[in-house]
Specification:
By secondary structure, the protein is mostly helical. It has eight helices and no strands. Helix 1 runs antiparallel to helix 8. The radius of gyration is 17 Å and the shape is flat.
């Protein structure tokens, strides 16, 4: 819901040009997801394998630290060169996408924080809590978009994505 609701809402309030700019920024910004998912898939079996160990939290925190450093560095790299990526890959009409990308990359980072911490909830078999957290994140995202996109445009969609994932990351921390 969080990944697509913003574009559905944008269709009612902004031009197709703005939707295109936002979609490009979102796609490029969340390309970091390749590293997020890859890191998660690499660490997931190790975490679940060690979930019964007496020093599980120490192992988990060590893996979590490595994972967060990895995604932080990747995000920092993308943010640093976001304007250059847009400049060299896209026509001039998409130059505003470079300004949205840092916000979207930060949203991807907090999604990564959320993703690694979700493992503890899954190990504890507290999936009902997880469903509530996801629902809250989706409602926050939709609410912010509905309230502010009309007035402030595509920047709101990027910020609402960040805020939603940030709230979800805090909730599972």
């Amino acid at each position: 819901i969080i990944d697509v609701s913003d574009r559905i809402i944008l269709e009612n309030y902004v031009s197709m040009s703005d939707i295109g700019i936002y979609s490009v920024a979102y796609t490029l910004g969340f390309s970091i997801n390749i590293i997020l998912r890859g890191g998660y898939k690499a660490f997931e079996p190790i975490i679940f394998k060690n979930s019964k160990n007496s020093n599980f939290l120490k192992i988990f925190n060590s893996i979590k630290k490595e994972y967060l450093i990895l995604i932080f560095c990747a995000c920092l790299l993308v943010i640093t060169y976001s304007h250059e990526v847009v400049f060299f890959m896209l026509p001039d009409e998409y130059s505003r996408a470079g300004s949205l990308m840092p916000i979207i990359v930060l949203a991807a980072f907090v999604k990564g924080v959320y993703t690694i911490n979700v493992m503890l909830i899954m190990i504890a078999k507290e999936t009902k809590v997880l469903a509530k957290i996801v629902l809250i994140g989706a409602l926050v995202n939709i609410g912010i978009n509905l309230l502010f996109i009309d007035q402030f445009g595509i920047i709101v969609a990027a910020l609402s994505t960040f805020i939603s994932f940030f709230i979800m990351a805090l909730a599972v921390h």
